[in-house]
Design brief:
InterPro entries: DUF4227. It is built from two helices and no strands. The N and C termini lie far apart (about 65 Å).
């Protein structure tokens, strides 16, 4: 009889710990989401930022050049 009660108490303890950790994880994820929700990643840079790439509109690369670039960069 005592063995059954111990098993039930251990099961309830594990369930409470699991539920508590799940709730803590959920609210932690919600806090991180609220923290970065209004973070504007695509704003124009401030300060002494430099543009490091340009798009050449004059050239029309052939499909083979684009394919080789695709395989080289792994995009």
């Amino acid at each position: 009889m005592f063995s059954f009660i111990k098993v039930v108490l251990q099961t309830v303890k594990v369930f409470i710990i699991f539920t508590g950790c799940t709730i803590l994880f959920y609210y932690g994820i919600m806090w991180v989401n609220e923290e970065y929700q209004n973070y504007h990643r695509y704003d124009s840079p401030e300060g002494s930022a430099l543009k490091v790439s340009t798009l050449n509109k004059d050239e029309n690369p052939i499909w083979l050049d684009r394919l080789i670039l695709f395989y080289l960069n792994g995009e």
